[in-house]
Design a protein that fits this description.
- This protein starts with a strand and ends in a 7-residue tail after the last helix.
- The chain is built from five helices and five strands.
- Strands 2-1-4-3-5 form a five-stranded parallel beta sheet, sandwiched between helices.
- α1 runs parallel beside α5 and α3 packs across α5.
- The longest helix is centred in the C-terminal third of the chain and has 19 residues.
- Helix content is 43%, strand content 23%.
């Protein structure tokens, strides 16, 4: 069974986001193993570079624990896919022998170049900028959609 980790900086505070994320997490339980790994947000406006480096180091610590995982950074500069094509991308990743996929959402200042070079793919959802907490809800909805497409489910139709 596919294992998906969402590695992200900070915690969700708004109830409506928590409720939406919980709903899609429940729906996913029959098809994949899904985990959210929340890391501490530094977010120091006065020392932005140190914040980025510290948060990126924390992300690297997590992804380095998964020796055989495919790492995907959600990044505005990444590749764009539609839902059907990314669902196929996940199938290809699985056929390549990966049973774990780590999706990474950096902090509000992003991640450093080291993380950008370490990941296997940079994925962009849009040219728009979204709040990181909202992006987590958008991500989990898309994850559910991708899984639904792979399983010929009704949700995507």
């Amino acid at each position: 069974m596919l294992s998906v980790n969402l590695i992200c900086i900070g915690k969700i505070k708004e109830k409506y986001l928590i409720d939406g994320i919980s709903e899609f997490t429940k729906r996913l339980k029959t098809d994949i193993i899904f985990n959210t790994i929340e890391l501490k947000e530094i977010g120091d406006d006065k020392n932005r570079e140190n914040s980025i480096d510290k948060e990126s180091n924390d992300i690297y610590e997590v992804i380095s624990k998964y020796k055989r995982a495919y790492n995907i950074l959600l990044d505005i500069e990444g590749q764009k896919y539609n839902s059907e094509l990314f669902s196929k991308k996940i199938e290809i990743i699985m056929l390549d022998g990966y049973s774990t996929i780590n999706f990474i959402i950096g902090g509000s200042y992003g991640v450093n170049n080291f993380i950008k070079k370490e990941v296997d793919l940079k994925l962009s959802f849009s040219d728009f900028t979204f709040p990181h907490q909202l992006m987590r809800l958008l991500f989990i909805e898309q994850l559910y959609r991708w899984v639904s497409i792979m399983n010929n489910g009704k949700y995507h139709k």
